[in-house]
Design a protein that fits this description.
The chain has about 240 residues and is an alpha/beta fold. It has 2 domains: about 120 residues, Aldolase class I (TIM Barrel); about 60 residues, Four Helix Bundle (Hemerythrin (Met), subunit A) (Up-down Bundle), CATH 1.20.120.1460. Helices cover about 45% and strands about 10% of the residues. It contains 12 helices and 4 strands, in the order H-E-H-H-E-H-H-E-H-E-H-H-H-H-H-H. Helix 1 packs parallel to helix 3 and helix 6 crosses helix 8. The longest helix is centred in the last third of the chain and has 17 residues. It is elongated and about 60 Å long. The mean pLDDT is about 90.
């Protein structure tokens, strides 16, 4: 009961058994998402245990990765933070423990044949490019959802021939066709627009954009015109 998530890093043999069973049952690659370690509440100096990375920590992480690799895991997706069990909330566990990209980098050096994907705190294109210089890939989670324009920035940063980066307004124009098609199928407008609220995150007018979309999508009969109405006015010079 409750044996899921980061606490399973305490059970490398069990995780390896699960990986082997999945590898035998499916034809798609099996990967494992993990932290660089786990710390239980009441573990002495909690702050030091969370921030540090001892030889014992390394032995545990390397042993865990080796076990799942030998069981058939085809990539390790590593959140570069420890998880604190029984002390921090899930949200706090995503933000409070310090990022230790150096640990993930060491892991990649010692497991050169295993694809290693790094996750955690990658909020800017430059940070992603720096990580890709030493790891096999990056995982973006909430940042890509809350600030989706980051994906356009990354596309241009990673593809020198991509040309000029499309504007947010150009993305909205493309979304109009999708919205029209989905509305014709009976999909509620709010079910689509709620995933677009972060498009102008960090830009002037972002709050008005979110409010217009979230409130307007609930109005009976609202359609694709809402996307154009929500575009923030150009700031006055």
């Amino acid at each position: 009961s409750g044996a899921f998530g980061a606490c399973l890093m305490h059970e490398p043999a069990l995780v390896a058994e699960c990986v082997a069973a999945m590898v035998a049952a499916v034809r798609v690659p099996v990967t494992v998402k993990m932290r660089i370690g786990v710390v239980s509440a009441g573990a002495g100096d909690l702050q030091e245990a969370v921030a540090g990375f001892s030889e014992r920590d390394a032995e545990s992480l390397w042993g865990f990765v080796g076990s799942v690799r030998d069981a058939g895991c085809q990539a390790a997706v590593v959140h570069a933070r420890k998880a604190v069990l029984g002390e921090l909330s899930p949200k706090e566990n995503r933000e409070v423990p310090p990022l230790r990209f150096d640990v993930v980098r060491r892991l990649k050096v010692d497991f050169p044949a295993l694809p290693v994907v790094v996750n955690g705190g990658l909020r800017l294109p430059g940070m992603v490019l720096d990580a890709l210089a030493w790891c096999d890939g990056v995982m973006l989670g909430r940042e890509a959802y809350h600030r989706p324009y980051l994906l356009a920035e990354l596309h241009c940063a990673l593809n020198s021939g991509a040309g000029e980066m499309p504007t947010r307004e150009a993305h909205l124009a493309r979304m109009e066709r999708y919205v029209a098609r989905e509305l014709a199928r009976g999909e509620p407008l709010a079910a689509i627009t709620r995933h677009m609220l972060g498009l102008y995150s960090g830009e002037p007018g972002a709050r008005d954009f979110r409010r217009t979309l979230s409130e307007g999508a609930r109005v009976l009969g609202a359609g694709v015109e809402l996307l154009r109405q929500a575009i923030p006015a150009a700031p006055r010079v």
